[in-house]
Write a structure and sequence with these properties.
Blueprint lengths: L33 E6 L2 E5 L1 E5 L2 E4 H15 L5 H25 L6 H12 L5 H11 L3 H21 L8 H10 L9 H31 L2 E3 L4
Antiparallel strand pairs: 1-2, 3-4, 3-5
Helix pairs in contact: 1-2, 2-5, 3-5, 6-7
Length: about 230
């Protein structure tokens, strides 16, 4: 079965914010401020932009995610839209991580996280280019590892919870082949069969995941604070 790649931040699932019962105090009623010394004359002010059940998402985490999307995926759009969509992606990720931990369906080792970091490093021409990339985002290797580890963790959970139960029948693949002749010029059905199965499996998995996230949201306590 093809691996389903869950996007790290930017969501594919456009859902309204549904709130459950209050199970956690919403700290953003009074701005949560974290002061970190950057140098003798400057300080960094952080605050909570969202709470997902008992987990918080901070402004610095959101901004780092937006910048990461732009740098890695070439994501485009106005800043407010990018922030809003990226926040949705972070909320989705938190919900899936919480559910995966509750069900104990997935696990990722430190070695596997290290391997993910090494694979990511290979995108760059040199160690210096990699380090410059991280420095430009204000990100450490440990933070990158945490991001990539969470992505792998979510992907494994989605594959076990949803992907293993997604099936694409041969007649569905044949119907897709027949209805998209421009995509398969000069190809026979049997030559395109595996790629069509992979495509339709990913599409079905995405649809199931959209529905699953809607269910998680309906039970979750999601609180949003102003992004400005």
């Amino acid at each position: 079965m093809p691996s389903f790649r869950f996007q790290l931040f930017k969501p594919q699932f456009k859902k309204s914010h549904t709130h459950g019962s209050r199970r956690v105090s919403w700290f953003a009623a009074v701005a949560f401020v974290l002061v970190l010394p950057l140098n003798a004359r400057a300080e960094f002010i952080d605050h909570i932009v969202a709470a997902v059940n008992n987990d918080v998402i901070t402004w610095s985490e959101l901004r780092q995610a937006v910048d990461f999307n732009r740098a890695v995926a070439g994501a485009a759009g106005d800043e407010k839209t990018m922030e809003s969509e990226t926040l949705e992606g972070l909320i989705n990720r938190r919900l899936l991580i919480q559910e995966a931990r509750r069900l104990k369906f997935a696990d990722v080792s430190e070695q596997e996280v290290g391997e993910e970091v090494e694979r990511f490093k290979k995108r760059f021409a040199s160690e210096k280019a990699f380090n410059d990339f991280l420095a430009g985002l204000g990100m450490t290797v440990e933070q990158l590892g945490r991001m990539l580890g969470e992505r792998l963790f979510v992907e494994r959970f989605v594959e076990k919870k949803i992907g293993l139960f997604v099936r694409v029948e041969r007649d569905e693949a044949q119907q897709y082949f027949d209805s998209h002749p421009a995509e398969f010029k000069g190809m026979r059905f049997q030559d395109a069969y595996k790629s069509i199965i992979a495509l339709l499996t990913e599409k079905k998995t995405g649809q199931e995941l959209t529905q699953y996230l809607a269910e998680l949201r309906s039970k979750a306590d999601i609180r949003l604070n102003s992004l400005t």
